Amino acid sequence: MDLGQRQQAFNRLQELHAPSLHRYACSLTRDNARAQDIVQETLLKVWQHPHLLDEPPEQLRGWLFTVARNLVIDQSRSGYSQHEFAAEQLPEQSVADQADQIFNELLVREALSSLSEDHRQVVVRAYYYAHSVEQIAADLAIPSGTVKSRLHYGMRSLKLALEEKGVGR
């Protein structure tokens, strides 16, 4: 049987038996969507066994209904019906533990407090507020070279303070 003949035989079988197979599956599952899945899986089994299409479609009725019944039984025994169910509302989303982040923030804050006021002002404005060197110089009324110098030495001191606390080793 070539592919065209196979498709024709399959279509004839589907037209003849799919509606009654669907009603039967609905009576077993009490769920239209599951019944449609059962019918599709049953017909897929026919397609996967092309020798069945050589038989007259009327003679396959019993086989089709047996396959459908077995699929319903298999589904009822599987996790599909025992453990999986639709939820009206999704459970809360899990949130990542923030303890490490909070601890790191405390370490940085403590290390920043060990800097001189001049160095701390420049570092905070540059890294926390993302101000440019020129903007910091204008805000503090100091030359931009002084800002760069304080930023360099402030970051060096901050790094040393964090290393003393065990960060970055």
Automatic annotation (TrEMBL):
It holds the Pfam family Sigma70_r4. Gene3D superfamilies: 1.10.1740.10, Winged helix-like DNA-binding domain superfamily/Winged helix DNA-binding domain. Coiled coil: none annotated. GO terms for biological process: DNA-templated transcription initiation. Keywords: DNA-binding, Sigma factor, Transcription, Transcription regulation. SUPFAM superfamilies: Sigma2 domain of RNA polymerase sigma factors, Sigma3 and sigma4 domains of RNA polymerase sigma factors. Residues 15-78, 111-159 form the RNA polymerase sigma-70 region domain. GO terms for molecular function: DNA binding; sigma factor activity. The keyword Transcription applies. InterPro entries: RNA_pol_sigma-70-like, RNA_pol_sigma-70_dom, RNA_pol_sigma70_r2, RNA_pol_sigma70_r4, RNA_pol_sigma_r2, RNA_pol_sigma_r3/r4-like, WH-like_DNA-bd_sf. Belongs to the sigma-70 factor family. ECF subfamily. This is RNA polymerase sigma factor. It comes from Glutamicibacter uratoxydans. The lineage of its organism: Bacteria, Bacillati, Actinomycetota, Actinomycetes, Micrococcales.
